[in-house]
Amino acid sequence: MRLLTFQGGIHPYEGKELTMEKPIEIYLPKGDMVYPLSQHIGAPAKPLVKKGDSVLAGQRIAEAGGFVSAHIHASVSGTVKAIEPRLTAGGNKVNSIVIENDGKFDTVDFEANVKPWEELSREEILALIQDAGIVGMGGAGFPTHVKLSPKHVDQIDYIIVNGSECEPYLTSDYRRMLEEPEKLIQGLTIVLKLFPNASGIIAIEDNKPKALKLLKEKTEGMERITVHSMKTKYPEGAERQLIYANTGRYINSSMLPADAGCIVHNVDTVVAICEAVCYGIPLIDRIVTVTGDAVANPVNYKVLLGTNMQELIDATGGFPGKEPEKIVAGGPMMGKALFSTDVPIVKGSSAILCMLEDEAAMYEPSNCIRCGRCVAVCPGRVNPSRLAKLAEHGKLEDFVNEDGMECCECGCCSYVCPAKRHLTQTIAATRKSILANRKK
Amino acid sequence: MTELKKISSSPHVRHEDSTTGIMLDVIIALLPAAIMGIYNFGISAFILILVCIASCVASEWAFQYFMKRRVTISDCSAIVTGLLLALNLPASLPWWMAVLGSVFAIVLVKQLFGGIGQNFMNPALAARCFLLLSFAKPMTTFVYDAVTTATPLAVLKAGGQVDVLRMFMGSTAGTIGETSAAALLIGGAYLLFRRVIDIRIPAAYIGTFTICIAIYAMASGRGLDIAFITAHLCGGGLMLGAIFMATDYVTSPITAKGRLIYGVLLGLLTFILRSPWNPATAAEGVSYSILCGNLLVPVIERFTAPKAFGKGAEKHE
Asked: ipTM exceeding 0.85?
């Protein structure tokens, strides 16, 4: 069968061999836990606790600040130490609840209100997902209950589970698929119940043959679920490219996937839905890959949200040799560089990547030689070299007219540029300022 | 926390290919043609190649140094320009003319417009045409085996017969680098293998030209004369132009569709300039075609701008 894919894209060094074969280890935090009130798209959550309160793991400590927002739950038992601005992986300070971890990990009774999910109505399932504070865990952090409430429920044709994990180095979704395939399939089955006309697709890149085989076996005989094998290429898991590869449908920057009858979920998100609906467990942990050439023992950790990143790095054995030049939260293509590792793991943290060398700083940009490689690899099918030039010259109107806003900031153009120009960075900065001006 | 880490916006990894690396690949790909040129035309060809490269690099350095700009000779692009220019000159050309051409290529065509990536014409070709207009006689006198000889295309035009195999191997009269189609094809294969050039331009160029010349051969009563067609393909710098000059990144379209159109256009232009109803022998038909094509690149790009992913997609209602 021809592998599903899209036009363009790149093949960077994958780095997945570092952690692919490493089973998920559970990490129990020792230090203080930090819960930023804004780890999702939408209004920040409002604290429900105050300094000095004692909390249990799984207890809701902040409630959603609106419909497009999400609750936040404590992941350890202990005492509220402070509610104050704390540094996050995004580089800014966000109002956060700090909990002193008592090390006991006493939890609330998760199972108290659990009913067999088959008996639940659509509204009850959505309420359970909302109560669990689930957001998209691929990084964007869009509240899942909002995503699952499109205008026309009967017009959703596909629920796609994004198992492509196309970012180099990341193996958290892969390990999840290998170790907890039942939960993934269960979660997808629950989502499918919400959409009577939809069929479920689990889309996986062909560099994960074990996961493909396992999920195909586990879903055998399930009428509504198929497992798709996709070509290994970055950014196969970018939402628009993923939808195109699996359904042949196009969406652009002014559309939501639901406009094309699709809803896309991250692997961890679907597992979280299963845990919330079937076991009553709110979103308090996730899988994080700690990896890179600077790390002594790269691992896949199951981490409680709020855990300090430095603590996590130390737990792997720290940096035995040279200190890394750069530490990235997420993958090397779209992750955010950290100037300090004193930041918490949040719902969207998929990896901590510690690189001995900072390739981005190794080269000095020179003139564009118009080789056209950026155009050839651009999955958004725009002309990055031209857009960057327009952006540098401040020609914002032309930038918009020539589809600058269709850029998904995947980084392919900067990656291939032989003149080492900062194409993605220039375009991304310009998009940001145009979007900010539109809001005014 | 001991110290702050380096930060920058994503992506944090880069492909290893660089401008310098690409230039080195082009130089490697030109070596077979250069070696064949030296083998065919002797030491004078070798000296001319050295003169061109040295004066290109020197004038780039001097211009940037005295204009207080960042000196970029280490990107090797001036070496490529010098080498390409030399391969487009007859081996018998006086060295000072070659120097003049090199300075013209680097200073007037390349640096005055902003240096690498900014020139709108291929520097080596512009310099060749500048020299042709300035020194018509020495630029069109081709010596082979110590005898002034007509180029195969001129022989063809006059109704004579040419030895196609010799043309393919390169033992005929012509500029230093254009005579050996075999050497040029080896270089082209290397560039394709290294993914330096896009096959669209040479394929569309040579393909279009072949079709035109075949139609002409049929129409003029020769029938499908393979020897005639091959002679046209191997002669007059078509291979050198199609593989190395038309594929110059800076002066060719950046879009895939644009490259196809550009190649077709060059094929047509070359055919027209070489055609029998053109009274001149137009040994430089290829050079003029590519220069004309260069000027049309912005227009071609405007009409072949890629269509953004999902543009015009409709909501499923």
From this structure: yes
